[in-house]
Design brief:
Elements: E1 2-5, H1 7-15, H2 19-29, E2 34-37, H3 39-49, H4 52-60, H5 65-75, E3 76-78, H6 93-104, E4 108-110, H7 114-119, E5 121-122, E6 125-128, H8 130-139
Parallel strand pairs: 1-2, 1-4, 2-3, 4-6
Antiparallel strand pairs: 5-6
Helix pairs in contact: 1-2, 1-3, 2-8, 3-5
């Protein structure tokens, strides 16, 4: 199964415990699951991790933004979307998630973003929460 994680799920998985962290652990432990990301989403991750609200948490983990991004990059297969559609009018950044998923031929997009979750699917790619993705991976 091919997955694309929205940046909000990645940040939650890297910095907190809970379903996003569990999802990343399941992906690492399951060779039948691959995680895909684009250069735009990697850049967005680095940018989001630099927000002041995450600084204390990064220090608590005794890590750095560079280390967290490198850790995530080591988990993903890189794809370069040829086209970024205009789908999410209220949040154009979400279009990059959709473009990445199409380029990766993903089965799931995992997000906590209401704009994406409201769509429910895009080009036969289901858009689910981290908890839903965990359930899918656990139950097969």
């Amino acid at each position: 199964m091919r997955l694309v994680l929205d940046t909000n799920v990645v940040v939650a998985g890297l910095l907190w415990h809970g379903e996003p962290r569990r999802l990343i652990e399941l992906i690492i432990d399951n060779e039948a699951v691959s995680l895909h990301c684009s250069p735009v989403l990697i850049a967005e991750l680095a940018n989001v991790l630099s927000y002041a609200k995450f600084a204390k948490r990064i220090v608590q983990f005794d890590t750095s933004i560079v280390a967290l991004v490198a850790q995530y990059e080591a988990l993903v297969k890189h794809v370069s979307p040829a086209h970024t559609p205009r789908v999410v009018l209220n949040d154009p950044d979400d279009d990059h998630v959709l473009a990445c998923a199409v380029a990766a031929q993903a089965q799931l997009i995992v997000s906590g973003d209401k704009h994406l979750l409201t769509i429910k699917s895009y080009q036969d790619i289901s858009i689910v929460t981290a908890a839903e993705a965990v359930s899918i991976l656990v139950t097969g």
